[in-house]
Amino acid sequence: MKNKVYAYLFPTITFVLWGSLYVISKTAMEEIPPLTLLFLRYAVAVALFLPVIRIRFGCIPRIPKGSRGLMAAIGLIGYGLGIALQQVSNDMLDASLAALINSINPVFIFILASLILKERMTAGKVFGTLLAIAGVYVIFGSSGGGISIPGLALAMFSVFFWSLSSVLVRKVTSEIDPLVMTMYGMLIGLAGMAPAAAAEMQFVPCTISLKGILSVFYLGIVTTAFAHFLWNKALSAAPAGTCSMFYPVQPLTSAVMGVLVLGEPVTAGFIIGAAVISAGVLLAVASDSRRGADRQRSGNPERGADKRQTGDPDRGLTLC
Questions:
Q1: Structure pTM?
Q2: Which domain holds residue 235?
Protein backbone atom coordinates (compact mmCIF):
# COMPACT_ATOMS: atom_id res chain seq x y z
CA MET A 1 0.00 0.00 0.00
CA LYS A 2 2.86 2.37 0.88
CA ASN A 3 4.57 1.78 -2.47
CA LYS A 4 1.29 2.52 -4.28
CA VAL A 5 1.11 5.89 -2.51
CA TYR A 6 4.64 6.68 -3.70
CA ALA A 7 4.00 5.35 -7.20
CA TYR A 8 0.66 7.05 -7.87
CA LEU A 9 -0.09 9.84 -5.40
CA PHE A 10 3.39 11.41 -5.27
CA PRO A 11 3.83 11.72 -9.08
CA THR A 12 0.33 13.21 -9.33
CA ILE A 13 1.13 15.85 -6.70
CA THR A 14 4.52 16.49 -8.35
CA PHE A 15 3.03 17.22 -11.76
CA VAL A 16 0.27 19.38 -10.26
CA LEU A 17 3.00 21.45 -8.59
CA TRP A 18 5.10 21.57 -11.76
CA GLY A 19 1.98 22.61 -13.69
CA SER A 20 1.45 25.49 -11.27
CA LEU A 21 5.08 26.53 -11.81
CA TYR A 22 4.31 27.89 -15.27
CA VAL A 23 1.42 30.04 -14.07
CA ILE A 24 3.19 31.41 -10.99
CA SER A 25 6.30 32.08 -13.11
CA LYS A 26 4.18 34.17 -15.49
CA THR A 27 2.93 36.34 -12.64
CA ALA A 28 6.44 36.64 -11.15
CA MET A 29 7.94 37.64 -14.51
CA GLU A 30 5.68 40.68 -14.57
CA GLU A 31 8.24 42.10 -12.11
CA ILE A 32 11.34 39.87 -12.33
CA PRO A 33 13.08 39.02 -15.63
CA PRO A 34 13.25 35.25 -16.43
CA LEU A 35 16.94 34.47 -15.79
CA THR A 36 16.98 36.51 -12.59
CA LEU A 37 13.86 34.66 -11.46
CA LEU A 38 15.55 31.32 -12.14
CA PHE A 39 18.62 32.41 -10.15
CA LEU A 40 16.44 33.36 -7.17
CA ARG A 41 14.46 30.12 -7.49
CA TYR A 42 17.64 28.02 -7.37
CA ALA A 43 19.04 30.07 -4.49
CA VAL A 44 15.97 29.35 -2.36
CA ALA A 45 15.93 25.65 -3.30
CA VAL A 46 19.65 25.11 -2.63
CA ALA A 47 19.34 26.87 0.73
CA LEU A 48 16.68 24.29 1.62
CA PHE A 49 18.46 21.26 0.16
CA LEU A 50 21.77 21.85 1.99
CA PRO A 51 20.46 21.36 5.56
CA VAL A 52 18.18 18.48 4.50
CA ILE A 53 21.09 16.61 2.90
CA ARG A 54 23.36 17.38 5.87
CA ILE A 55 20.75 15.90 8.24
CA ARG A 56 20.23 12.82 6.06
CA PHE A 57 23.92 12.03 5.42
CA GLY A 58 25.59 13.76 8.35
CA CYS A 59 27.58 15.91 5.91
CA ILE A 60 27.48 17.22 2.33
CA PRO A 61 28.52 14.19 0.21
CA ARG A 62 31.18 14.60 -2.46
CA ILE A 63 30.72 13.56 -6.06
CA PRO A 64 32.93 10.53 -6.93
CA LYS A 65 35.85 11.57 -9.17
CA GLY A 66 34.76 9.36 -12.04
CA SER A 67 31.32 11.00 -12.16
CA ARG A 68 32.30 14.65 -11.82
CA GLY A 69 32.45 15.28 -15.57
CA LEU A 70 28.98 13.83 -16.12
CA MET A 71 27.63 15.69 -13.08
CA ALA A 72 28.98 18.95 -14.49
CA ALA A 73 27.33 18.17 -17.85
CA ILE A 74 24.01 17.40 -16.13
CA GLY A 75 24.14 20.68 -14.21
CA LEU A 76 25.15 22.83 -17.19
CA ILE A 77 22.94 21.18 -19.83
CA GLY A 78 19.87 20.41 -17.74
CA TYR A 79 19.66 22.76 -14.76
CA GLY A 80 21.56 25.51 -16.57
CA LEU A 81 20.72 25.69 -20.28
CA GLY A 82 17.57 23.52 -20.31
CA ILE A 83 15.70 25.20 -17.45
CA ALA A 84 16.94 28.66 -18.50
CA LEU A 85 15.41 28.18 -21.97
CA GLN A 86 12.24 26.88 -20.32
CA GLN A 87 12.03 30.01 -18.16
CA VAL A 88 12.57 32.35 -21.12
CA SER A 89 10.09 30.47 -23.36
CA ASN A 90 7.51 30.56 -20.57
CA ASP A 91 7.81 34.35 -20.67
CA MET A 92 7.02 34.29 -24.41
CA LEU A 93 4.21 31.69 -24.46
CA ASP A 94 0.96 31.09 -22.60
CA ALA A 95 1.61 29.09 -19.43
CA SER A 96 -0.65 26.26 -20.60
CA LEU A 97 1.18 25.89 -23.93
CA ALA A 98 4.63 26.05 -22.29
CA ALA A 99 3.62 23.28 -19.87
CA LEU A 100 2.16 21.22 -22.70
CA ILE A 101 5.37 21.40 -24.75
CA ASN A 102 7.34 20.42 -21.64
CA SER A 103 5.18 17.31 -21.23
CA ILE A 104 6.85 15.85 -24.34
CA ASN A 105 9.96 15.22 -22.23
CA PRO A 106 9.42 11.43 -21.89
CA VAL A 107 9.26 11.06 -25.68
CA PHE A 108 12.56 12.93 -26.14
CA ILE A 109 14.10 10.82 -23.38
CA PHE A 110 13.14 7.62 -25.18
CA ILE A 111 14.72 8.85 -28.42
CA LEU A 112 17.94 10.06 -26.81
CA ALA A 113 18.22 6.92 -24.65
CA SER A 114 18.08 4.78 -27.78
CA LEU A 115 20.88 6.82 -29.35
CA ILE A 116 23.13 7.29 -26.30
CA LEU A 117 22.36 4.29 -24.07
CA LYS A 118 21.44 1.96 -26.96
CA GLU A 119 18.03 1.24 -25.45
CA ARG A 120 15.69 -0.45 -27.89
CA MET A 121 12.97 1.69 -29.50
CA THR A 122 9.70 -0.25 -29.60
CA ALA A 123 6.92 0.29 -32.10
CA GLY A 124 4.85 1.87 -29.32
CA LYS A 125 7.58 4.40 -28.59
CA VAL A 126 7.95 5.29 -32.27
CA PHE A 127 4.21 5.71 -32.79
CA GLY A 128 3.88 7.66 -29.52
CA THR A 129 6.66 10.00 -30.64
CA LEU A 130 4.93 10.65 -33.96
CA LEU A 131 1.62 11.29 -32.16
CA ALA A 132 3.23 13.82 -29.82
CA ILE A 133 4.85 15.66 -32.74
CA ALA A 134 1.49 15.65 -34.55
CA GLY A 135 -0.14 17.20 -31.47
CA VAL A 136 2.35 20.08 -31.53
CA TYR A 137 1.59 20.60 -35.22
CA VAL A 138 -2.18 20.65 -34.52
CA ILE A 139 -1.75 23.38 -31.90
CA PHE A 140 0.62 25.39 -34.05
CA GLY A 141 -1.53 25.03 -37.16
CA SER A 142 -4.72 26.06 -35.36
CA SER A 143 -3.19 29.11 -33.69
CA GLY A 144 -3.67 31.36 -36.70
CA GLY A 145 -0.19 32.78 -36.20
CA GLY A 146 -0.92 33.69 -32.57
CA ILE A 147 1.94 31.62 -31.14
CA SER A 148 5.41 33.09 -30.74
CA ILE A 149 7.65 31.05 -33.06
CA PRO A 150 10.84 31.98 -31.13
CA GLY A 151 9.11 31.03 -27.88
CA LEU A 152 7.99 27.69 -29.33
CA ALA A 153 11.50 27.01 -30.65
CA LEU A 154 13.08 27.82 -27.27
CA ALA A 155 10.56 25.55 -25.53
CA MET A 156 11.46 22.66 -27.85
CA PHE A 157 15.20 23.24 -27.29
CA SER A 158 14.50 23.33 -23.56
CA VAL A 159 12.82 19.93 -23.75
CA PHE A 160 15.75 18.55 -25.76
CA PHE A 161 18.42 19.76 -23.31
CA TRP A 162 16.50 18.65 -20.22
CA SER A 163 15.86 15.23 -21.78
CA LEU A 164 19.54 14.93 -22.69
CA SER A 165 20.55 15.65 -19.10
CA SER A 166 17.96 13.10 -17.89
CA VAL A 167 19.57 10.45 -20.07
CA LEU A 168 22.99 11.38 -18.67
CA VAL A 169 21.51 10.99 -15.18
CA ARG A 170 20.86 7.32 -15.97
CA LYS A 171 24.60 6.83 -16.42
CA VAL A 172 25.46 8.02 -12.90
CA THR A 173 22.49 7.02 -10.73
CA SER A 174 24.43 3.99 -9.50
CA GLU A 175 27.05 6.30 -7.95
CA ILE A 176 25.17 9.41 -6.81
CA ASP A 177 22.06 9.56 -4.65
CA PRO A 178 19.22 11.30 -6.56
CA LEU A 179 18.70 13.91 -3.81
CA VAL A 180 22.41 14.75 -3.81
CA MET A 181 22.42 14.84 -7.62
CA THR A 182 19.51 17.27 -7.65
CA MET A 183 21.23 19.57 -5.15
CA TYR A 184 24.51 19.61 -7.11
CA GLY A 185 22.64 20.11 -10.39
CA MET A 186 20.88 23.16 -8.96
CA LEU A 187 24.12 24.41 -7.43
CA ILE A 188 25.81 24.27 -10.85
CA GLY A 189 22.75 25.92 -12.40
CA LEU A 190 22.89 28.62 -9.72
CA ALA A 191 26.54 29.34 -10.54
CA GLY A 192 25.72 29.51 -14.25
CA MET A 193 22.74 31.80 -13.71
CA ALA A 194 24.66 34.31 -11.55
CA PRO A 195 26.47 36.09 -14.44
CA ALA A 196 23.44 35.70 -16.72
CA ALA A 197 21.15 37.29 -14.13
CA ALA A 198 23.68 40.08 -13.48
CA ALA A 199 23.85 40.84 -17.23
CA GLU A 200 20.06 40.67 -17.58
CA MET A 201 19.59 43.18 -14.75
CA GLN A 202 21.64 45.71 -16.72
CA PHE A 203 19.04 45.80 -19.50
CA VAL A 204 15.72 44.68 -17.97
CA PRO A 205 14.15 46.56 -15.06
CA CYS A 206 13.34 44.57 -11.94
CA THR A 207 10.94 45.79 -9.24
CA ILE A 208 10.07 43.20 -6.62
CA SER A 209 6.87 43.68 -4.65
CA LEU A 210 5.42 41.42 -1.95
CA LYS A 211 3.73 39.43 -4.73
CA GLY A 212 7.09 38.87 -6.41
CA ILE A 213 8.76 37.81 -3.17
CA LEU A 214 5.97 35.33 -2.39
CA SER A 215 6.19 33.99 -5.95
CA VAL A 216 9.96 33.43 -5.62
CA PHE A 217 9.54 31.52 -2.35
CA TYR A 218 6.68 29.44 -3.79
CA LEU A 219 8.73 28.55 -6.87
CA GLY A 220 11.87 27.79 -4.88
CA ILE A 221 10.31 25.89 -1.97
CA VAL A 222 7.18 24.24 -3.40
CA THR A 223 7.73 23.68 -7.13
CA THR A 224 11.50 23.09 -6.95
CA ALA A 225 12.68 21.69 -3.61
CA PHE A 226 9.48 19.95 -2.44
CA ALA A 227 8.39 18.76 -5.90
CA HIS A 228 11.85 17.29 -6.60
CA PHE A 229 11.75 15.54 -3.21
CA LEU A 230 8.37 13.96 -4.05
CA TRP A 231 9.67 12.97 -7.50
CA ASN A 232 12.73 11.27 -6.00
CA LYS A 233 10.51 9.52 -3.47
CA ALA A 234 8.26 8.24 -6.25
CA LEU A 235 11.24 6.98 -8.25
CA SER A 236 12.48 5.10 -5.19
CA ALA A 237 9.31 2.97 -5.24
CA ALA A 238 8.30 2.67 -8.90
CA PRO A 239 9.92 2.54 -12.36
CA ALA A 240 10.50 5.86 -14.12
CA GLY A 241 8.09 4.78 -16.87
CA THR A 242 5.25 4.35 -14.38
CA CYS A 243 5.91 7.73 -12.76
CA SER A 244 6.17 9.44 -16.17
CA MET A 245 2.66 8.30 -17.11
CA PHE A 246 1.37 11.17 -14.97
CA TYR A 247 3.04 13.84 -17.15
CA PRO A 248 -0.29 14.90 -18.77
CA VAL A 249 -1.40 16.15 -15.33
CA GLN A 250 1.13 18.99 -15.74
CA PRO A 251 -0.39 20.77 -18.81
CA LEU A 252 -3.90 20.06 -17.49
CA THR A 253 -3.04 21.91 -14.27
CA SER A 254 -1.46 24.79 -16.20
CA ALA A 255 -4.43 25.06 -18.55
CA VAL A 256 -6.95 25.25 -15.69
CA MET A 257 -4.83 27.68 -13.66
CA GLY A 258 -4.04 29.69 -16.81
CA VAL A 259 -7.75 30.26 -17.40
CA LEU A 260 -8.58 31.01 -13.74
CA VAL A 261 -5.52 33.08 -12.79
CA LEU A 262 -4.22 34.59 -16.05
CA GLY A 263 -7.38 34.60 -18.16
CA GLU A 264 -5.66 32.65 -20.95
CA PRO A 265 -7.91 31.36 -23.75
CA VAL A 266 -8.18 27.62 -24.41
CA THR A 267 -9.08 27.00 -28.04
CA ALA A 268 -10.49 23.85 -29.63
CA GLY A 269 -7.16 23.38 -31.42
CA PHE A 270 -5.32 23.48 -28.10
CA ILE A 271 -7.65 20.87 -26.57
CA ILE A 272 -7.30 18.55 -29.57
CA GLY A 273 -3.53 19.01 -29.67
CA ALA A 274 -3.25 18.42 -25.93
CA ALA A 275 -5.25 15.20 -26.25
CA VAL A 276 -3.04 13.99 -29.12
CA ILE A 277 0.18 14.85 -27.26
CA SER A 278 -1.08 13.17 -24.07
CA ALA A 279 -2.03 10.06 -26.04
CA GLY A 280 1.42 9.96 -27.64
CA VAL A 281 3.22 10.34 -24.30
CA LEU A 282 1.03 7.73 -22.60
CA LEU A 283 1.49 5.27 -25.48
CA ALA A 284 5.27 5.66 -25.46
CA VAL A 285 5.51 5.39 -21.66
CA ALA A 286 3.11 2.42 -21.51
CA SER A 287 5.21 0.65 -24.13
CA ASP A 288 8.32 1.25 -22.03
CA SER A 289 6.61 0.06 -18.84
CA ARG A 290 5.31 -3.05 -20.59
CA ARG A 291 8.79 -3.88 -21.86
CA GLY A 292 10.21 -3.41 -18.35
CA ALA A 293 7.57 -5.77 -16.89
CA ASP A 294 8.33 -8.40 -19.54
CA ARG A 295 12.04 -8.09 -18.76
CA GLN A 296 11.41 -8.64 -15.05
CA ARG A 297 9.26 -11.71 -15.69
CA SER A 298 11.96 -13.19 -17.90
CA GLY A 299 14.64 -12.67 -15.24
CA ASN A 300 16.73 -10.46 -17.50
CA PRO A 301 19.92 -9.24 -15.75
CA GLU A 302 19.04 -5.66 -16.68
CA ARG A 303 16.74 -5.69 -13.66
CA GLY A 304 19.72 -4.71 -11.55
CA ALA A 305 20.16 -1.61 -13.66
CA ASP A 306 16.50 -0.74 -13.20
CA LYS A 307 16.96 -0.89 -9.44
CA ARG A 308 19.94 1.41 -9.63
CA GLN A 309 17.85 3.94 -11.48
CA THR A 310 15.17 4.12 -8.79
CA GLY A 311 17.38 5.96 -6.33
CA ASP A 312 17.70 3.22 -3.67
CA PRO A 313 18.87 5.08 -0.56
CA ASP A 314 20.78 2.05 0.79
CA ARG A 315 23.39 2.01 -1.92
CA GLY A 316 26.06 3.85 0.10
CA LEU A 317 27.30 5.52 -3.05
CA THR A 318 28.45 8.90 -1.83
CA LEU A 319 31.43 9.87 0.33
CA CYS A 320 31.79 12.83 2.68
A1: 0.77
A2: 2-294
